[in-house]
Amino acid sequence: MNDMSIYTDIYNTVSENMQNAGGAFRTSEICFGKIASSDPIIADISELAEISDNSIFLETAYRILLQRNIDDNAIKSWESRYGLPAPEFQKLVTRSILRSAEFANTKIKVKNNIYSEKNAFGGNIGSIRKASAVTMPEKLMNMYRKMPAPMKKAAKKIMGVD
Amino acid sequence: MKIYIDLSNLMAVDFLTGIQRVVKEIVVRMTENGKNELILMTYSHVINVYRRIDNKKFHDFFAYGKGSREAAVTAEKINLTDIPSGAVFFDIDSVWNSRLKRSYIFPVLKQNGVKIVTQLYDLIPITHPQFCHENTVMNFMIYTGANIKYADLIITSADATVKALDELTDRLHMQRKKTLVVPLGSDFARSGNSSEAPDKNVLKIARNRRYILMVGTVEPRKNHSLVIDALENGLSEKGISVIFAGRIGWNVEKLEKRIKSHPLFGKNLFFIEKPSDATVDMLYKNAFAVAFPTFNEGFGLPVIEAFQRGTPVIASDIGVLHEVAGDMAEYFDPTDKDDFIRCVSRLADDENAYNLLKGKIKKYVPFTWNQAAEAMENAVMSVSEKQKSVPGNLDIKQMVCLTARNEDILSTLPYIEKFMPFIKEMVLCTPDKNADELKELYKGRLEIKFLTDSEILNGNSLPDDHSTRNFFLRCLAMKNPVIDDVFIMTDDDYRPLRTIRQEDFVRDGKYLAYYCYDLNEWQGTYGNPTSFDVSMKKSREFLGNNNYPTMMYSSHQPQVIDKRIFNEMTEKYPDIISQGLCEWCSYFNYGIGTYPDMYMTVPYVSMGWPGARSDWDIYVKPKEFLFENHYSVLYEKGRVFYGLSEELNENTAEENQIKILRYSEELNKQLIGREVYNSYCEGYLLQYREIPSFVVTLGEDDSMVINAPEYIVLKNSGWTRIPVKMRLKTESEKILLMYWFSDENGNNISAVAKQQVDINQPEFLLPVVTPPFKRQCVFNFRVMPEDKNIAADAVMIANVV
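The joint structure predicted for all components is written out below.
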């Protein structure tokens, strides 16, 4: 039902009008498309993560999560890390924004947060055989250390760690 | 008619100029005339929901200055889905900067059969983006796109805006919108501060001075600089002063500095910031002329405000101002200060010319706010005018059933005879071979009429797919005169549970439309969609693409059909006949979208849908049960109706009560399970600001990561559906999900459940069956792309309560 093509068509039309007047948009088409298509109350981090360009991810994350344009100071503080692999850069940006007081004030909720500071299981496990155990992430290891002995035993068994 | 108005911007700002003035003047009058039920709302960013505004308090504040904005906001919450079918959502406020983007809310409203009317003030951020803040342009593009896509009517205040909109829709290859021009009013009479005196200091400035007045927000588009240039280049020497009245807007820091540090500032150049209505009124009356050097405008309210006070206007030579001012203004090129000076000089130096212009203005008949409000409200009402109505003397006597199972229909007919006394006639659409046997076996009171497949098909071949076949046959049968204009459509296994009257289908002059789900939410059988599921998907696509509501009406119970509307739909969209849509969903959504006054949507009243609570999550709980969707399997040992009779007998009425009790209990178990999960989600959200979900990322390098909640809470002995999203960066045809529960020692305490992932539907709700006991245990979640020979596990504490 919600075909979004009209929004990108309008972006291109207005962009042309802007160029004819001697100006240019700072907001990228990708960022605009995400703003138009996103749920204004629940931000889906896994959708944001589909953006491969780090600078566009940054401007979009500000628009979606903080509901504003990114400011020059923020760009300056992040641009030195544009060269990082996208998942790493995105993780840093997302976590930084989600920890901020400004984000708390927006009352925006988050779902499918693949950059959560909580449970993430797995990693590069290409070599692990089918149905075998996987390595415990650090967060889980901390949880594991605090577990009572019987639970530790269970966790070991489940994860295949002896 | 119910009219919902989002006043979030008006309620948030502390000024009443421009659009805010229009909104105030119109809405205040709409609250007074009582023609419609007005539901005024403002969006709360704190709780992310609309709150209702008290109409009287709103009126008292904005009409008389009594009370406050804040006091007018009530605690009553309004969700988008609360806005009923047939209501109008009237967007008159400047809502493009609102968090609730129209690209998000309009589809929801349309899905519910709500009409959308928008007051479009102008398209300047689209046509002249260079004059607007980029945020405004971005938000306005979304607002405009949503209106082009979804609005039923767009009201503008000038033909120039209609022209600009038509040009835009043409450029976008979209259909032109239905539009209506309603000029804005110009009288100040209803101001909340009407008794207020003008500012004494401003009065001193205005008296004994020949001045050019500019009213409005200081922003680049308004072109204040040109007037200052003219002041410096001749006007000042002529003894003419300039007064700007308004507030400081966007991107005018340099201009503001230029004004306030100008050598003539306080002598021949004045800036009256945020003047009251009374002060503006006084300034208009005493001005030599009003200047309007704008580059672009939606209407030009200051022009008619000046006319109303008999003050000449010197305006930009642009189309919209010619439309508003006609030959009652002097025009100049807004890029040429000398042209402006020429115009002013002509009026200043030639008393006859000045008086001639004033004479023309005297003949100006202002359009009042009362007229504007009435015209606008009539326009809003026009989108939902009754185009058809349900006949008052309606007497339904016919049922129509599509059946290929003689045994089933023969078992059902006695229930119809007993519990639906108003039904006199049954039309059976059936294969030819079934008709003879039915004629022979049926001995009841109903007059049976047959429409055999060969009669219906008339040479057409029958599609293979079950749903496609049913829809095809029903569409064709609907053309046959044997079927009444209004009848009850049913299937051979829908049985009434108690006496049913016509009022259960037609009430208060409206057809009841019993819905059971939202098509957008329907998942059906995950990973292995049935013919029914496919028809739901096709129906959703058809309805959504054509901007009809998208509720699900295949409620597995008899429903009333107006075949004239059904036929109108298939004549309008002839291709759908062979596309396998759902007959119930397509008909009702088309009818409700086209003739909202003819229908009343109500939750379904059918038992046995779902057949088992594990089949799918209930979207809406039936308030009562009038029908049973008969599944023999539910009468087997261990199932919900075990021990009860499947045939009509003297105990049926009592047994139906038992059925209702048992089935309600089953549904309640499901609802309790979902309540527990929802409570857990709310708690998790409070704790972590995140909605718990499982996200599986299969990377290009065959790495795999599962993001999972820290813990999970589930109701015991039930089915709970948990959200899973698969992010597949590499192709995998065969991905298996497994889950199970284990105890503190690692021993499995549940069976290992498996679910094949449908790569075409990577976001889904995984039905998790929970253990039959209450305890804390471990939830194990495993993902195996089997064709890649890899796997990943997630484990977490599970509280089974």
